[in-house]
Amino acid sequence: MNTALTAGALIAAAVATVAVGVYGLRPARTTSDFLVASRTVPPRLNAAAISGEYLSAASFLGVAGLIAKYGADALWYPVGFTAGYLALLLFVAAPLRRSGAYTVPDFAEFRLGSHRLRRVAMVVVVTICALYLVPQYQGAGLTLKTVLGLPVWIGPLAVGGIVVINVVAGGMRSVTFVQAFQYWLKLTAIAVPALALLAMAGPHRAELGGPLPPTVPQQTTVHIETDVVISVGDPAGVTVSGTVDGQPVQDSPLPGPGQHSLAAGTTVLLAEGAQTPVIEGAPATGSAWIRSGGGLGGQHPLYQVLSIMVATFLGAMGLPHVLVRFYTNPDGRAARRTALAVIALLSLFYLFPTLLGAFARLYVPQLLMTGRADAAVLLLPSAITGTAGQLIGALVAAGALAAFLATSSGLLVTVAGAVSTDLLRGRVRDFRLAAVVGGVLPIPLALAASSFELSRGVGLVFAVAASTLCPLLVLGIWWRGLTSAGAVAGLAVGAASTAVATLLTVTGWIGADVLGGWPATVVGYPAAVTVPLAFATMVVVSRLTCATVPQDVSRIFARMHLPERLGMGVERLPRD
Amino acid sequence: MVHTRVEVQQQTEVGDALVRGLVRAQLGLALRLAALVFGAMAAVALINSAFPELAAVTVWGIRLNWLILGVAVYPLMYGVGRLYVRLAEQAERDFISVVDEDADPDGDGDGDGEP
């Protein structure tokens, strides 16, 4: 990989980001500019901005890695990430915009008139954003390490710095242009390598549609950086130096098929045409990889798939940084058109990670055994020879940086909006202060927390969002019986249950085989349990406290559901 | 003279009933379309899980399960979204025409009877 070229592309992407932000900044003066871009963003621009913000590193890098590793069942992630916007369009987009709120906590107060609920919603919003921001920073560190060999702390510092500059300078107005620009940059950066590899594949193209056994095209050396358990289908042509199953070995073949543990520091030499061992839980053969129903490692694959569907279909409705972008549309009709355009833009984008996932098995299968399949998209361009490969490699690195920047800036605007209007006095100065603190604080967190697979982490964030803000919005918009006590209880139950599940997954306290594997599978994929639980809690507690239904609920419903032409709408703004 | 628009704006009983009708219609439309799409997707997951041998079926050299989940579902989602936008906007236009029917004596579009 050409380091100078890649560094140049990364710097160009960073400079372009700041420049586009400055272009959007000229008219940013009022609080409304900073919070909701004065509600003047047309549907197409907003759709590009939402897609740019939404396609985080998990989509840009993670989806291809998951598909390379787990095969057909991993296709549910991109499908679900897109389907979330169909659900958002059907149930949330227009009424949410017509409410006239400027943040999600503000919507909660508008709907139920409770200041306590507003505070609880603010805590949930900040928690979701923080959970999402930390993996973005970590991913930036890993990317710069992979492509330039820089120390991991530089990535979080660089991304944090650029994002804080943009958000502090122009708030939502700057960020809108930045994110829209980054959608097109990311689409280019993922489409060009996929199409180039497709053109290059030539004689291999027929194999692409078939089972791709993970065999290496030439002799390959793999360094194991963290302890892994691998499963070996065919040990022929694989030699190891280091520690295997706790025993030190030197240039010896693997003991045989089955599972083996490799300690950090081990080196694996794969002869030309040898079958790569894969990480434990991933399908070891090509025919198992191409088949649906294998799940994503672990037991109960059908439950895993259904739970991923619940989390991703409903999760987009609960992501505060996505919701807040819908407040920037001029009216409910534009909000609907925005959501529809987002579906089109995401559909176009997600064709390419699927292709790259298949190519990763063809050209860089050794990644399947290191637990670093996230790096597949970054390393694939090296399979293209000559200057073209180096240029494409640089482009992909720039696209990855754009992914971190776009998502992080959306999250930071959301945090700053919620904190500055709920904890501070809602002036532009407060917004800027909140943006600096919110952008800098996750940097040490990203360095301290242990990292795990990008898309897995983002999957958990979707589960939290689907179990908290999604029921609040859906019931708030469509059910007159919701009370503030019910909403608070539902948010608390949804947040607590997903938090427990996340904690148990990260610490690994529940053995994979306890009680037929169900507890481990459920905490790994909690949404199918926690989402119905949160909805049920909101409904039951609201029924029990039905005397406290807001008296003006009819007026609120009329505002949310009637077209603006009837003149019921009121645009809310922080008191200042 | 029936001032339906004013009834809606001032939240009289008639106005509230009209709003309830609109909300119910929009929710029914959203639920029906959601059931269609998400039911179809759940069916794909269940069928794939129940009949793993379907993985051998290929269309144009690509496995059928990959073709469905990797390509075909996306136009389906866009199509349903488009249909929803059309029908939901139609419902809102119908609502406005009911509300504004003979309630706009001065023809300035706000229905308050004042020019």
Assign the structural class of chain A, choosing from mainly alpha, mainly beta, alpha/beta, alpha+beta, or little secondary structure. Answer: mainly alpha
Rg value of chain B? 23 Å
**Greatest chain-chain interface?**
A-B, 51 and 54 residues
Residue share in helix of chain B: over 70%
Q: What oligomeric state best describes the polypeptide chains here?
A: heterodimer
Low-confidence sequence ranges of chain B: 105-109, 111-115
Please state the overall shape of chain A, judged from the principal axes of the Cα atoms: globular
| Mean of pLDDT of chain A | 84
With strands numbered from the N-terminus, the spatial order across the biggest sheet of chain B is 1-2
Number of strands of chain A: 7
Number of discrete helical segments of chain B: 3
Unreliable residue stretches of chain A: none
Topology:
The complex is a heterodimer of chains A (576) and B (115).
Chain A: H1 3-25, H2 31-36, H3 43-54, H4 57-70, H5 76-91, H6 93-98, H7 104-112, H8 115-148, H9 154-201, H10 205-208, E1 220-223, E2 228-232, E3 238-244, E4 247-253, E5 258-262, E6 267-270, E7 278-279, H11 286-290, H12 301-315, H13 320-326, H14 332-363, H15 376-379, H16 386-422, H17 428-440, H18 442-448, H19 454-467, H20 469-478, H21 484-507, H22 518-524, H23 527-544, H24 553-561
Antiparallel strand pairs in A: 1-6, 2-5, 2-7, 3-4, 3-6
Helix pairs in contact in A: 1-9, 1-16, 3-9, 3-13, 3-14, 4-14, 4-19, 5-12, 5-14, 7-8, 7-20, 8-9, 8-16, 8-18, 8-19, 8-21, 9-14, 9-16, 9-17, 12-19, 12-23, 13-16, 16-17, 19-21, 19-23, 21-22, 21-23
Chain B: H1 4-9, H2 13-50, E1 58-59, E2 62-63, H3 64-100
